[in-house]
């Protein structure tokens, strides 16, 4: 399990421990995942995610802003999943800001443009950095976008897929323009993140401490609230 | 009243003019002859009052007021400044009792003449011992002292200790209340009425366990925002509250409401003539009833919030003790935190834990869950906690954050960088596609930011921030159409932040990031907060950014613009730095590393340098080689169009130039992993 990173309140852990104490089995839970979107400018990150979330804005949010932050609700095998998708600025000058964005992410989608070899190199840089910072806790997706421009392909399918496999990531081919491969990409990613979360919970021992999994964004929503350590409710009414 | 320090000495103040009876020391202290005796007492801490030493008969039931008062484990005293001079001058009367006045006392007195409150030495519990189950007494003072000096305690310990101490205080408070009641003589009232003096005991650790201030209940909950001189927050808040404009006043009056069926706690309000704030009894009762009736009419969520606020003001409740102590602690002792992060995270933890307490406390009557649906409970309590804690603390917190930054010189640097960033064009700040907003739009956004600064609630601040972001999106959509992702948004935000030139935004971001309910950090608010933080980072590290930028600039054109700017602005990176030589090493996996100094003009691109290297190093397959810059951060392949000499100059110009090398080597596909 990842360490608490800077800026993330340490008390979160304590709080979750108190709030999620009841644990409880499979049914009626909601997973909340954070997915960060990385890749050079112009590779089509934004169109990709817009395509996916089109017309599905969550009205619960204070404002419905545009394409930098998007949410999506899914139901996978009876489990509810809330996705929060964080877009990042792809320009090199903002590269150093990466950790601020991908902190606490459950998944990362690394997009390159199949016609642009350089954008694929950038993806490699990101993979290296993410593995270094977040270890294997994060589910990685490498996405070759713009398959509609197959003729101008500059990154070979073999190389890309081979590379993805070598770093424990999954490779996908998408075309935001033709709306191809996008649903599969996200669905697959969600399933993998759920597996990771479940494995996490099992490893932590069910019920005893949800804090590990919760810290990474998996919350127990429907459970009866806590048998938390009341800090002495009894002594006060005097 | 007495105050016993753990140093063994005991300071006693006596006001014959004020109190109608003589105060007595607890027996054990009175009979103490040596310093060791007193030390033994001090070691007991709050436990003293439960121990055989501190028990002069039947504690808590004694009828004799004077004895009761002696038992009051108060670390604090009343000082009546009217008599202060007299007392200090009067050596005879103070012969056996020595008066110790903190030097800041008089200052504080003049600043807040109408407000009387205790500053609890319980602040020292910061470094207290961790325990999971609160017990009746506090840790021994000496133990605390060690902890305090070592300062290794975690934040959870702080809060836990606070909980513990407040509880132990409560154990005593009932008898204390009784004592106050009987001590409420005209003389005392006079003292209270005259001038409020806030007296901080000299921060002894024993006070931790003895800080039950018997007379806390004499006073209204003091640190309202008035104390910080920010009425603006108040106004804003009331605006938001809609019909709640007089809420605070109402509650001043009706705050016995919750405890009405519990006659024991005595409030100052019940004493005739104690203060000008009080209404005649005939008026008060109906008002209270009315308020109660109104309460049932208002929205249940708001009702809970009010209830919690009322409880927070009620010193006889566990929660009230806790909150008031904590607020005072932060007000007075924020400087003991090591960093702003430390300060804010401790505070956040306090909010979270008290919230958890409230959610199941029997002190809230009726319980939260009877009024609010389960999934709203946390939200409502969070809001209530903001009102009780963040509202009085906002001003002090932001000042403290600024102090932390000033101490490290970050504040000054940020201001300088902001001013510099403001002079940059949108393109220089990374806006490649979007068009810069007009001054009017920027003014509109600046206004939003100002509104944001005025409120205390992190949630409301984030809402304001989102409104500002919405305007930015509207600008982008209006200018170039379509929907925009972070590629466009972040540079635009950076540009706008630079244009607004508000260094205080940096503090606001910290405030929000750390105090916002952690559950919200992954949501939309969290995202835009993160983006604002990121944009501030860009500005804060403006100078370093330029170096990174140099590596990836795509066109000579931009590069030359940048070069011109640098040379005209600084005039420093002169010819010496742009020497016509560049040392390049050939890294060959088979052989060792060889370096050559090449003649490279300032306007020579990396592509040309590569060609030169291929020739000089006699490389057979130049197309698979490239020029890299090796420095602390690792290796970066230079863009074919970038200018190595300029990059070198840029690195040389940094305040602390890191070691770096230009390396000509093979580009292997797997080189990155």
Can you offer a commentary on this structure?
The complex is a heterodimer of chains A (238) and B (673). Chain A is an alpha/beta fold. Chain A has 7 helices and 7 strands. Chain A has helices at residues 11-19, 45-53, 98-102, 117-134, 157-166, 182-204, 211-215; strands at 30-38, 69-76, 79-87, 107-113, 139-145, 170-173, 218-219. In chain A, strands 1, 2, 3, 4, 5, 6 and 7 form a 7-stranded mixed sheet that branches. In chain A, strand 4 (107-113), helix 4 (117-134) and strand 5 (139-145) form a beta-alpha-beta unit. Chain A is globular and about 50 Å long. The termini of chain A are far apart. Chain B is mainly alpha-helical and 673 residues long. A 5-stranded mixed sheet of chain B has the order 4-3-7-5-6. Chain B has a two-stranded antiparallel ribbon with strand order 1-2. In chain B, helix 14 packs antiparallel against helix 15 (340-360), helix 14 runs parallel beside helix 17 (374-407) and helix 20 (458-480) crosses helix 22 (504-515). In chain B, 44% of the residues are buried. Mean pLDDT of chain B is 65; it is low at 1-20, 57-155, 171-276 and 547-578. Chains A and B meet through helix 1, strand 1, helix 2, strand 3 and helix 4 of A and helix 7, helix 15, helix 17, helix 20 and helix 21 of B.
């Amino acid at each position: 399990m990842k360490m608490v990173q800077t800026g993330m309140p340490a008390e979160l852990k304590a709080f979750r421990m108190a709030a999620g104490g009841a644990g409880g089995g499979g049914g009626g839970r909601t997973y909340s995942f954070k997915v960060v979107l990385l890749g050079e400018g112009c590779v089509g990150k934004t169109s990709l995610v817009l395509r996916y979330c089109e017309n599905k804005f969550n009205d619960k949010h204070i404002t419905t802003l545009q394409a930098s932050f998007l949410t999506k609700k899914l139901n996978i095998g009876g489990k509810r999943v809330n996705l929060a998708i964080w877009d990042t600025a792809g320009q090199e000058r903002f590269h150093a800001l990466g950790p601020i964005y991908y902190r606490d992410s459950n998944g990362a989608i690394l997009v390159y443009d199949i016609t642009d070899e350089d954008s694929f190199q950038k993806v490699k840089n990101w993979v290296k950095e993410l593995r270094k910072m977040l270890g294997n806790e994060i589910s990685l997706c490498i996405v070759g976008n713009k398959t509609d421009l197959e003729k101008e392909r500059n990154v070979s399918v073999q190389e890309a897929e081979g590379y993805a496999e070598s770093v424990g990531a999954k490779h996908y081919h998408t075309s935001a323009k033709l709306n191809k491969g996008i649903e599969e990409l996200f669905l697959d990613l969600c399933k993998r993140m759920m597996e990771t979360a479940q494995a996490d919970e099992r490893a932590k021992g069910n019920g005893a401490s949800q804090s590990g999994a919760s810290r990474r964004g998996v919350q127990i929503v429907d459970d009866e609230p806590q048998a938390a350590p009341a800090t002495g409710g009894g002594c006060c009414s005097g | 009243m007495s105050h016993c320090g753990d140093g063994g000495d005991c300071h006693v103040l006596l006001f014959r003019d004020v109190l109608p009876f003589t105060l007595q020391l607890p027996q054990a202290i009175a009979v103490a002859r040596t310093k060791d005796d007193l030390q033994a007492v001090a070691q007991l801490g709050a436990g003293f009052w439960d121990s055989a030493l501190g028990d002069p008969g039947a504690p808590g039931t004694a009828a004799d007021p004077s004895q009761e008062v002696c038992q009051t484990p108060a670390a604090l005293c009343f000082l009546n400044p009217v008599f202060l001079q007299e007392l200090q001058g009067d050596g005879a009367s103070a012969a056996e009792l020595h008066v110790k006045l903190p030097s800041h006392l008089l200052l504080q007195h003049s600043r807040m003449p109408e407000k009387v409150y205790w500053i609890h030495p319980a602040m020292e519990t910061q470094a207290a011992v961790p325990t999971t189950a609160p017990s009746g007494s506090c840790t021994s003072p000496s133990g605390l002292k060690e902890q305090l000096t070592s300062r290794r305690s975690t934040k959870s310990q702080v809060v836990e200790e606070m909980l513990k101490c407040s509880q132990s205080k409560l154990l005593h408070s009932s008898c204390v209340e009784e004592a106050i009641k009987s001590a409420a003589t005209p003389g005392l009232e006079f003292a209270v009425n005259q001038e409020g003096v806030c007296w901080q005991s000299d921060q002894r650790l024993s006070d931790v366990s003895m800080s039950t201030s018997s007379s806390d209940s004499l006073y209204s909950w003091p640190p309202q925002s008035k104390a910080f001189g920010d009425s603006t927050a108040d106004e804003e808040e009331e605006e938001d509250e809609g019909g709640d404009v007089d809420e605070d006043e109402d509650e001043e009056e009706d705050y016995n409401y919750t405890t009405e069926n519990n006659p024991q706690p005595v409030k100052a309000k019940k004493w005739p003539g104690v203060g000008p704030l009080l209404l005649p009894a005939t008026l008060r009762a109906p008002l209270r009833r009315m308020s109660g009736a109104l309460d049932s009419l208002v929205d249940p969520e708001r009702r809970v919030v009010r209830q919690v606020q009322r409880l927070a003001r009620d010193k006889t409740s566990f929660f009230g003790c806790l909150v008031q102590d904590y607020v005072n602690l932060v007000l007075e002792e924020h400087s003991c935190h090591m960093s702003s992060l430390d300060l804010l995270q401790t505070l956040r933890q306090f909010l979270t834990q008290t919230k958890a307490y409230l959610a199941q406390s029997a002190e809230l009557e009726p319980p939260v869950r009877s009024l609010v649906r389960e999934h709203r409970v946390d939200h409502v309590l969070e809001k209530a906690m903001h009102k009780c804690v963040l509202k009085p603390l906002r001003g002090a917190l932001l000042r403290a954050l600024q102090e932390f930054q000033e101490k490290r010189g970050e504040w000054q640097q940020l201001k300088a960088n902001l001013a510099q960033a403001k002079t940059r064009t949108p393109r220089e700040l990374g806006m490649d596609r979007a068009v810069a907003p007009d001054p009017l739009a920027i003014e509109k956004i600046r206004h939003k930011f100002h509104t944001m600064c005025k409120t205390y609630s992190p949630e409301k601040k984030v809402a304001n921030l989102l409104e500002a972001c919405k305007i930015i999106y509207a600008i982008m959509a209006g200018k170039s159409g379509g929907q925009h992702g972070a590629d466009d948004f972040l540079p635009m935000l950076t540009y706008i932040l630079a244009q607004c030139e508000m260094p205080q935004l940096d503090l606001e971001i910290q405030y929000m990031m750390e105090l916002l309910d952690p559950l919200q950090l992954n949501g939309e608010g969290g995202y835009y907060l993160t983006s604002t933080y990121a944009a501030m980072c860009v500005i804060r590290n403006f100078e370093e950014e330029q170096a990174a930028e140099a590596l990836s600039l795509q066109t000579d054109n931009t590069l030359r613009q940048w070069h011109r700017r640098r040379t005209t602005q600084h005039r420093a990176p002169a010819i010496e730095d742009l020497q016509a030589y560049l040392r390049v090493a050939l890294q060959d996996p088979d052989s060792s590393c060889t370096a050559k100094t090449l003649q490279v003009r300032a306007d020579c691109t990396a592509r040309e340098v590569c060609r030169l290297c291929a020739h000089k190093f006699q490389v057979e397959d130049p197309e698979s080689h490239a020029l890299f810059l090796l420095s602390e951060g690792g290796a970066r392949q230079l863009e074919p169009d970038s200018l190595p000499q300029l990059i070198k100059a840029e690195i040389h110009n940094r305040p602390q130039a890191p070691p770096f090398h230009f390396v000509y080597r093979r580009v292997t596909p797997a080189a990155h992993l």
